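Sample intake sheet
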Amino acid sequence: MTASGKIILVSGGTFGIGRAITLGLARRGHSVVAFGLEAPQVSSTARNAIPGLREELDREGLSAELMEADVSDADDVARVIERALSRFGRIDGVVNNAAIGPLGTVLDTDEALFDRIIAVNLKGPYLTSRAAIPHMIAQGGGSIVNIGSGAGWGKPNMAVYSASKGGVVALSAAMAYDFFHRRIRVNTVIPGGGGIVSGMSLGRVGGDANRFGKGAPGTAAGRTATGDDIANVVAFLLSSEAETLSGTVIDVGCFAQQGGPVPPKPAL
């Protein structure tokens, strides 16, 4: 760890957007403890991701602690916290990124799937934050970044996923209030614009990347967003440059939390 580096936990940090966040933070000199599941989850193509991420870290001369752990399991989360503390002695930040995103209406979603979506997407951030916050309080502060979704304001055919991500937005705001005077900042990042490749996004199109992102509005940069774009904003929110920001929602893409959609590009 460099003198300016922080100790950051990243859930779902071994594949897709989480992988980009892990790499982006490691490149900035932070010590990252990234964890996720190696077995494919419902509606996701993410699997066996740790070896490939380790190889990429090695190629770049970087390091990170990579663990297999289930964010919805309190005992697994406790193992992650213990690893971070035993290895680095403190926890400066948490990125709650792990999520699953099965499509469906309330009629298409059975009770077991409902429970699993809520367990990963909403209970997961609760468990990780609950485990990390006491250590942040003891050391005088910290930062939590929750990865939300434009679906958190409701989208068709995403009933339970929308409910879970809406809960993340509300949970973030509540935690920002609750720990304001403990110098623990809590912010939400919304990936947007379509086209961001992740296990979840590919899972929704049967793993066929050629079917993904067609017609996506992209971003004001004239292209679709990438995992690196998300990682850049996450890194900023974890940094001392953002030490006054808490309770914010930042869209990385195209106004995902403001109703949308972006209108089609006009013909030239």
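Comment: The radius of gyration is 18 Å. Strands lie at 7-11, 31-36, 65-68, 93-96, 142-147, 184-191, 249-252.
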